Please model this.
Amino acid sequence: MQAERADRRADSLGHVFLEDVYAIPGGEKVKECIQCGTCSASCPTSYAMDYTPREIIAALRAGMLDRVLKSNTIWLCASCYSCTVRCPSGIKLTDVMYELKRLAIDFDLAPSNVKAPLLSKLFVSIVDKYGRISETELVSKFYLKTNPFNMLGMIPRAYKLFMRRNLPLIPHKIEGTSELKKCAGSMSAPLVSGLQPGSSSGEEN
Ligand code: SF4
Ligand code: SF4
Model:
């Protein structure tokens, strides 16, 4: 059922016009890609990617945003900026990767074995609540939702951090968390016109 919903969301995204891809900050530069492959050759993690950075650009230009968002490529990007500094067309590929990650999280399209979206959502919810991160709460919630047994391996390190007073058990809440939340909300406005998370055609509530 969940997979069906994800497929419907992906189908909807497949109809996003190429202009919407260009609306991603720096995305219009994608038009100037000459498919030279310098980005793929410079990328330290391309060997493990479903699609190399060059192929990602080609897929975006072909309007196959759904395929891009469901691939593991964007999650293997280590943000090293090698592709960005070497691209002869000045395409800010690293920034495009960041925006694609955000879209994949918004539309819940990341591969199920990729845990980064969960970590990102937990991080944001904790910052919304306290105005800052609580490492203790982040790590606890992450392991409880993935594999609680993995938490056992963290105990010795957590103990050392706790003894050095680097792992507070009670989160510190700043003042003005609601204002901070409003600021953060206004900065994360949807990027893709005409298609909002949770409102894609055929989506069930
Ligand atoms: S280096 Fe730039 S121009 Fe060359 S394939 Fe990559 S994105 Fe396109
Ligand atoms: S920024 Fe990402 S896509 Fe670009 S070279 Fe580095 S790891 Fe590869």
About this structure: Residues 33-39, 53-54, 57, 87-89, 91, 93 surround iron/sulfur cluster (ligand 1) (CB under 6 Å). The chain has two domains: 2-106, 116-187. Residues 116-130 form the longest helix (15 residues).
